[in-house]
Design goal:
The protein has about 280 residues and is an alpha/beta fold. The chain is built from 12 helices and 9 strands.
């Protein structure tokens, strides 16, 4: 089917506030599905299904697809583009407000595959990282610069709090770069597909909360040293901060972007007896 003609047929109007940029290129859709590694035993959650082109490609491979979108004006479009598929359930809800634990009790283990709306990319990934107990993997199309941050290595400008947060639960890699010319309407930036393979407990940290707080502290002010951020964020004395860093094997003048996820885990373990967790 020709995507533009379907949208025009139903009088669909793009809404800038929803970050709607749809994919119609069949080769791109097939490559996203292939990169995700889903098969006939996989339950898929898609966030921001748009006109349903990726949804259909996923449904042809997956056991079941739960497709979320906030724009109810897409109902007649999706009725046409998803016609004949019995393993798709379209849910017109804001996924960011879904109680994940309740939802996961209903659907079990699942994989997220999505062309994420740009304006909510990072909050949605953080929600899945912090709240989900059953997600097995995430393969998402995001802005290229966001993809670079997700998959960055320490000691690079792109490395930040979201990088370390992802590393707590798994490993992220860029599997495909995508030209802006493959979207309709055409966005102002290029994109990339990032795959996060979950490996819970890989860092061996004593407390996930302590790890997340330590990462937040480290990137509180990128220009300041870890020592200064520890003093300011956790209200440690200068001597306590120096002792913590020494016990963790970290240079007193180090900054957050120099620490690997493994070193963040070690630092959070040393900090644990000294800090209050929310």
């Amino acid at each position: 089917m020709e995507l533009r003609s379907v949208l025009e047929k139903h009088g669909f109007q793009f809404k800038k506030q929803f970050g709607q940029n749809f994919i119609s290129d069949q080769n791109l859709l097939a490559s996203i599905v292939a990169a995700s590694g889903i098969d006939e035993n996989t339950t898929v959650v898609e966030i921001g299904c748009g006109a349903g082109t990726l949804t259909r490609a996923l449904a042809e491979k997956a056991k079941q697809v739960y497709a979320f979108d906030v724009d109810t004006a897409l109902q007649p479009v999706l009725a046409e583009t998803l016609a004949g598929l019995e393993n798709v359930e379209v849910i017109f809800r804001d996924f960011s407000k879904v109680n994940l634990l309740e939802f996961e009790r209903e659907i079990g283990d699942y994989t997220v595959v999505a062309n994420l709306p740009y304006y909510i990319t990072t909050p949605l990934v953080v929600k899945l990282l912090e709240e989900s107990e059953r997600v097995q993997g995430i393969s998402v199309m995001v802005q290229e610069e966001v993809a670079e941050r997700f998959a960055a290595q320490e000691n690079t400008p792109e490395y930040g709090a979201i990088t370390a947060a992802i590393a707590l639960k798994g490993r992220a890699k860029i599997v495909k770069r995508v030209s802006r010319n493959l979207f309709y309407p055409r966005p102002n930036v290029d994109s990339a597909v990032v795959k996060i393979e979950f490996e819970r407990g890989r860092l061996g940290e004593k407390s996930e909360k302590a790890y997340r707080q330590t990462v937040k502290c480290a990137f509180l002010n990128r220009r300041k040293t870890l020592e200064n951020n520890l003093v300011n964020y956790f209200s440690l004395t200068r001597e306590q901060a120096k002792t913590v860093l020494r016990e963790a094997g970290i240079d007193e003048k180090a900054r957050g972007e120099t620490l690997s996820p493994e070193r963040f885990a070690r630092l959070s373990d040393v900090l644990l007896p000294l800090i209050k967790l929310d």
